[in-house]
Design a protein that fits this description.
The chain is α+β, with helices and mostly antiparallel strands. The chain has three helices and twelve strands. The strands form four sheets. Strands 3-2-7-12 form a four-stranded mixed sheet, with no helix packed on it. A four-stranded antiparallel sheet has the order 8-9-10-11, with no helix packed on it. A two-stranded antiparallel sheet has the order 1-4.
């Protein structure tokens, strides 16, 4: 086991699609650690393979409040995974908010796939055309229990 796994925690989310469940990082490229900044453990984490830097503000490592970490932990199942589901369904009307089709509407033909791409039926030049766009181009996305989290 690498040191980063011994000292920290990564959370993953399970996203279902037509090919089955897909596990993706909830916080890509982030590792949550609890360490004393004055300890030897701090230098072990900072110099651990795969660690680029600590998220810091004004040179001080950022502190994530315990209730936020607790809330995230509560959402995870026994395997440490948080299950998400797409709120997109075949037949839903959506608005494209990015890319070459920005501002146009369409109808979902297939929900997000493993590559987070959505097939949308659009009326373009008086014809119905099925296009494939990244999920981030559509103004509807994934829902996890974290979506209901409010700051204290």
């Amino acid at each position: 086991m690498e040191r980063s796994q011994q000292h920290g925690r990564k959370w993953y989310v399970v996203v279902s699609n037509k090919s089955g469940p897909l596990v993706v990082s909830l916080f890509p490229n982030y590792l949550f650690v609890r360490i004393d900044l004055a300890s030897q453990e701090y230098s072990q984490v900072v110099w651990c393979r795969g660690i680029k830097k600590l998220v810091s503000f004004g040179g001080t490592p950022a502190d994530v409040e315990e209730h936020i970490i607790g809330f995230i932990r509560e959402q995870a199942n026994q395997d440490g995974l948080i299950v998400a589901k797409s709120i997109l369904k075949v037949g839903d009307n959506v608005q494209i908010v990015k890319g070459p089709f920005k501002g146009l509407g369409g109808i979902i033909q297939e929900p997000p796939d493993q590559k987070s791409r959505i097939k949308v039926l659009m009326a373009i030049l008086s014809r119905n055309v099925q296009v494939e766009v990244p999920a981030s181009y559509v103004d509807i996305g994934w829902v996890t229990p974290l979506a209901h989290c409010t700051s204290h």
